[in-house]
Amino acid sequence: MLILSEIPDSTYLFDLYRNKNFLLTFEINEKEIATSEILPDFKDKRLTIILGKEGAKVHLDATKPVLVNGVACRRRTLKENDILFLGPYRLVFKGERRKPESITVQPKNPRYKKKRRKTFLSFRHFLEAAAILASVSFLWYCTTQMPVQRRPEAAHLPIVSKGHEAPPPTEEKKEKIPKPSSEAGPHISLLTYAPHSVFTPKKLDMLFVHAHPDDETLDYGLYISKAVEAGKVIGVLTFTDGESGFDFYPDRDTTGIYPNKELHGKELAAVRVKEEERALKILGASVYIRLGLKNRPYTAVEVKKSIPTIIKEWGGNTVLVNKLNTIFTAFDPAVIVSPDGPSHAREHFEHEAVGYITARAVTLYRQKNPGKLQAYLKLVDVQQAEAYPEKHLRTIGFSEGNSDIVRKKRNALLQYETQADASYYGIKRLKNFPFEYYFIQYINTQNSAELLLDSSGRKTAQAH
Predict the structure, then answer these.
(1) Which class is domain 191-463?
(2) What SS3 state is found at 389?
(3) What pTM, to 2 d.p., does this model score?
(4) Which of 94, 159, 279, 364 is in Cβ range 3.0-4.6 Å of 13 for a Cys bridge?
């Protein structure tokens, strides 16, 4: 493992943590690099991270995907307090320290000043003479050598319809997210339940549970789309509205539901809910359930919270388990899918809290309703499958004849214009990893292939 810089006269600072314990602050510049020696328990010796710069922005380029703030990417602009996850280590970017500019002190010798003034006057006279010569030469060329410009014939003039103007010249702009697709879902109406709603009983084939708007598409998009194509009735349960996330402004749309300003808090949450509704309609879900629980920011190691802390903030184990069992009873899903928690891999702490409390709720639901739930699956990050060597992973993804589910997931990701993790990095990740991994926590049937749509067969984590 190497971390190096290709920018002269700049030094980058990182705070190194192992789990939650601060170890040291180290510097990266042209002469100083970081190697595996400072991360002895990080085993990937083929990873190289290069720090560069575009304008005033510091960016990271990696030879293979790395997790930055919990999102896998090969290239990303770094901001202060961004977190790189490398095995058990956390590298917190603390910014750039520049070398002070050198100041030339002029000698106080009066002879030096006189000589410098004389040189300056000579140079100024030279410039004035050159300017006069250039003007005379240009005037001679215009009057004797330049060809006469004729007005184009009428037949060659551009024809512009009434009410339309000729398009203005396009300016080169920085890369933006692709334009969202307006693709409609498969003619399935989406029933949305706001927090504290009274549920109308409806039989679901599968219920997908996650933490934030966009997680359901990033992690389950292929599975949801494939299940809908197979005729399954799908529900999605989202714990928070994502009010503590980051807005991708100004690199997003500023019309319709998107104000021309950076969104925060409740304003951001309201837009993210609408984005999730759009994405779910494309994927084909029938039911969208919001719990509206508190979303904590995740900008640095210091703000990471434990699962018990998050569960307590959300109301406690008993309240949450009972709330989930009310939902399970109302919608009677045959299959429930959730994140893993506590996870073997490196995951967002609210993802792990969702996985933990869902598992407890499923256990209680099975005890009260024996035989009703047919299967309980847990998600595995496609880039962290090596964390589950003992599991047989089920694969949902691209194969010849089902490219349509990849296209639907892509179009659903594009609905999240406020979320670069979905509409920008998520699109890039989908190109490299057009599949999803799950493992079975519980199953109550022998016909798992038909129930779980497991047409691609089993694969072990070690094979990936």
Answers:
(1) alpha beta
(2) coil
(3) 0.65
(4) 94
